[in-house]
Structure formats: C-alpha cells, structure tokens
Amino acid sequence: MKELGTNVKKETLAGITTFVSMAYILFVNPSVLGESGMDKGAVFTATALSAILGCLLMAFLANYPIAIAPGLGDNAFFTYSVVLAMGIKWQTALAGVVVASIIFTILTFFKIREIVINAIPHNLKLAMAAGIGMFIAFIGLQGGGLVVASKSSLVQLGSLTVPTTWLTIFGLFVTALLMSRKVPGSIFIGIVATAILGLVTGLISAPSRIVSSIPSMKPTFAVGIKYLGDVNTPQMWAVVLVFLLVAFFDTAGTLIGLAQQAGLMKNDKMPRIGQALMADSVSMLAGSVMGTTPTAAYVESSAGIAVGGRTGFTALVVAVLFGFGMFFSPLLSVVTTQVTAPALIIVGALMAQSLKEIEWDKFEIALPAFLTVIAMPLTYNISYGFAFAFLIYPITMIAAGRKKELNPVVIALFFVFVVMLYVLNVLPSK
C-alpha cells in the first residue's frame, strides 16, 4: 500500500464505493435471468457467491482493486437472444455457459488471453480506457434519467418533471463540487448524500425490513452440467462462441481501462495480468455451475479507483460486503440507479483523460481510436469497441505504409472479429 501511495482507510472507502456502485447486480441479474424461467432466489445467491469468489481471487491472486461479478451484457444475451428468441431451454443455455467457461479457463491457463492483451497497441489501449469511460458515463446518464430513448433521434434529454431525475442532478452537483474542492472520498459522500435525500423526500422507499434469509441455490446448482449433452447442435455451438468471445474481450478491455486509470500499467503492460485473468476465469466457471451467466471485471471498479483504491484490499472489501449483502438485501434497495448515476458520470469524465495521450495527428491511428471510443457507448457493448478497433486499425496502418508495425496477434484479431460479428448478427437472422 505504501508503495502505491495508499492505506487501509483509502482502500476500505474504495471498496465500499465500488460495492455501492455495483450492488444493483444483486437485483438486476435475478430479474433478467428470471425472465428466462430461472428461479430468481437461486440466481440471487449464485450472483453473490460468484462475485465473492471472483473478488477474493482478484484480491489474493492478482492484488488489483478490481471487482468481479456476473456481467450485464451476458445475462441479457442469455435471456432475450438465446432463450426467448431462439427458443432454447434455460437449462441447455446454461450448459452452453458451462462449456464456454471451460474453454475460457483453458485459454487463460495457456496464457493465450495474456498474449492477446499485451499485443494490443498502446494507442488502442488508451482509446479503450476512454471508451469505457464514455460507456459508463452513458450508463449513468441513462440510469439517472438525464438521457432517455427517442424514436426520432435514438436518444434525447430526459424529462425534468420526473422527480427521481433530480436525485441524479443533486448527486452530480454535490459530487462535482466536492471533487473540485479535492475532498477525500467525494464520490462516496455524493452517493450517501443522494441516498439520504431520496429517503427523506420519499423518492426512495425505505426498506420494510433489514435482514432476510439467503435463498437456496438448489433450483439452478449444477443444472448446466446435467444438460451438457444438449450442447450438440451448430446453433448451440454458435451460442457458446458468442459467450466466449464477449467474455474474452469485455474483461480484457475493462482490465486495461481500469489499470490505465489507476496508473498501474508498466511499459504499456499490465503486471500480474495472468493472475487477474485466472481470477476472472475461475469465477466464471464456478458461477456457471452455481447457476448464473459469465462473470466479468466490473467497470464500476473505476469509482473505487477514483476514490484511491490501488490494491487487492479494495476487492477484498467488496467480497466481504457482497457476503453481508446476502443477509441484508433489503437495505441494498436504497441504492437505486439514480443514486449511483452521478458516480458513473464523474468517473467517466476521469477516464476520458487518456484521450490526451493518443496520437491524433496520425490519421491511421486517429480513426480506429475514435471509432473505439464512440462504439462502446453507441452500441452499448465494450466488445464492439474492440471490433471497430481491430477491423479498421490493420487496414489504415497498411494503407499508411506501416505494415511492419502490425504484430501477428493484431492480424489474427481482425479475422476473429469478422467471425464474431458474423455469429452475432448474421446467424441469429437465419
């Protein structure tokens, strides 16, 4: 901690801030997967336990202030694309997640993921960090009601007549003022102040009780293993491939962005990345057995990093709080999207600072970097940001006469993303 200019107090505050920012997954994941027919109570417990395992592994294996929990994109793909659109039983779909998790862990063990991440060009790493910042800021603006969907223009300013939107505005102003005054723990203070205002004004309902029992995982535990024999069709293997690719690049982009934000990159490489990737892989495999979709490194970890988190102690605190959250789930309902939205917007602004280091004067770099940044929020998917980068970067570099600077991994990724986009967008329509 001393080497990284931090201490137990800072790390604890960072862990609390990260947990508060991502606690919504305890409720959102069961809600989304519940629509596929899965038992919500079992998914709640599986979500918490897979997050606890992932965070503990990240703390003790990799020593990074990065939290792990089931990812939002994967659960939406599982329910809406695989189960509801393709008509595949949730049990079979979960078996697909188990298969993807096994392959994922093997790729990590043989350091293939580590090789890919280290081969990503410096300018694209900077663009990915900024893109993730834009993405989480957009999530915050949307969750807070400041930006809403529009049929004519896709998005538009939210209505200021909605009372809960003013919670976000209040939290944004309070946090911005505290940040400008360089008050320690500004983001966490802003979250607490917004939650208190919501309770006082009645915009956030006070919990009816404080403690609740932990739901059983019996309805989902090991179901994916029991249905492994159903993963025997081209359609299911396409599903497995999507889970694998999205999990691979979502976490890769998030880890790079967060390490960049925390100033932990050394010689353009992330130290102990193999351990960080193994923590992610093992928690993904365990989560699939318990009954939830793939885990991922959480972009909300950036809120804790902004508060000062630099070591695995931050992730350890998040794990402990997820453990408490299993018993005190009614209290977590106080942390609404309007409460966490200001934190995400502020952190988005902080992560966008990496834009200043990109070589914008060189078009062959500027275009793929720009597309990386805007693709993440506009497609609502970190993986698509990667796709835009690696589909354009090799072409512009070759056109600029810089073919020798392209390493084999970058060329391989060009073809990987061609396949990924085909699987994601062409196969489902056939």
TrEMBL record:
The keyword Cell membrane applies. Keywords: Cell membrane, Membrane, Transmembrane, Transmembrane helix, Transport. It is a multi-pass membrane protein. One of its GO terms (cellular component) is plasma membrane. It is found in: Cell membrane. The chain crosses the membrane at residues 12-29, 41-61, 94-112, 124-148, 160-179, 186-206, 236-256, 305-324, 365-393, 405-424. Its main location: membrane. Belongs to the nucleobase:cation symporter-2 (NCS2) (TC 2.A.40) family. Azg-like subfamily. PANTHER family: GUANINE_HYPOXANTHINE PERMEASE PBUG, XANTHINE/URACIL PERMEASE C887.17-RELATED. This is Xanthine uracil permease. It comes from Ligilactobacillus ruminis (strain ATCC 27782 / RF3).
